[in-house]
Each structure stands twice: as C-alpha cells, then as structure tokens.
Design brief:
Elements: E1 2-3, E2 11-12, H1 31-39, H2 42-53, H3 72-101, H4 110-137, H5 145-171
Antiparallel strand pairs: 1-2
Helix pairs in contact: 3-4, 3-5, 4-5
C-alpha cells in the first residue's frame, strides 16, 4: 500500500491478492474474546442466580425476560376456595334466615339439613383447594402467587367456620 499524493492520511489499495487464504483476524486481537471470558465469570453466574430467583427464565434479566408461568394447581386452588367461600356464606345465611323465621324449627327439618350439608360440602371443597395450593407451592419453575392465595383462603374459610362452631357451642 502506498499513500495517495494528493490526500494526506488516505491510502490506496494496490496489489491485493484476493486469493490469499490467510485470515488477518487470526493474528489480530479480538476484543469480543475478552468480553466472552469476562461474561463467564462468577459475577455473571451470581447475576443469573439472582434473576432466576426473581422469576425470570433467561439470563437477560428483568429487561427482556419472560416471567415464570403461574402454577396450574395454584389457580385451581384459588377457584375452589372462592367457590367454597361462596358456598359457606350462602349456607350460613340460609341457616340463619331459617332460624330467625322460625325459632322453634325442629332439627330434622330438611331445609336445616340441606344448609348443614352445604356447609360441610363447602368445607370439603375448601380443604381440597387448600391441599392443591399446598402442592402448588412446591412446583418447580412456577410462580407461587395463586398457590399462596389458595392456601390463605382455605385457612380463612376453615378457621372461620371453626370459630362459628366454637361460638355456637359456647352460647348454645
């Protein structure tokens, strides 16, 4: 290569052998090699561990990653416990209305028996929902939000009905 006579700093390419099989990149330092070595250090692994604990499944972190999918068992748990809560509420309100309308209502009245069976069925549904939520808590690589909510709802429903039974027994 020789410099152009009219322009300083500009070189003219002459006598280039285009059939030369040598690769000039093999002899030159590539800055990307240094970056790749640095990216594979413990710091990068620590960052990936932190992002995966936050629920991201790619090493891109919060900027471009997809959050973990929700637990199917957790979603089922919330749905069951919500229906159980509605069933308990409707059954308790129905039993209360029947008792207020007729204070001398016999215990073998079919309406009272139906309300009691509704409460028991709803409690069973809440227990199944709580169990599904508990199993959903231990699913790997899943978001645990709905599993936690299902467990909390089940405990509130079972504890609430238990408290109503204790109050009923105390005040007879």
């Amino acid at each position: 290569m020789r410099g152009s006579p009219g322009l300083p700093g500009v070189t003219k390419v002459t006598d280039v052998d285009w059939n030369d099989s040598s690769d000039p990149s093999e002899t030159q330092h590539d800055p990307w090699d240094e970056y790749a070595e640095q990216a594979s250090t413990d710091e990068a692994q620590d960052r990936w561990d932190e992002w995966s604990q936050l629920g991201y499944d790619t090493p891109d972190g919060p900027g471009g990653a997809v959050p973990l999918p929700h637990s199917g068992l957790g979603i089922a748990s919330v749905i069951l416990t919500v229906f159980a809560g509605l069933g308990v509420t409707v059954s308790v309100v129905a039993a209360t209305v029947l008792a207020l309308q007729n204070p001398a209502l016999p215990e073998d009245n079919p309406q009272i028996i139906a309300a009691g069976c509704g409460i028991l069925a709803s409690l069973f549904l809440a227990a199944v929902g709580g169990l599904l939520g508990l199993i959903g808590l231990f699913q790997p690589n899943r978001n645990r939000l709905f599993a936690i909510l299902g467990c909390v709802f089940a405990v509130l429903e079972l504890g609430g009905v238990g408290a109503l039974l204790v109050i009923g027994l105390l005040f007879g």
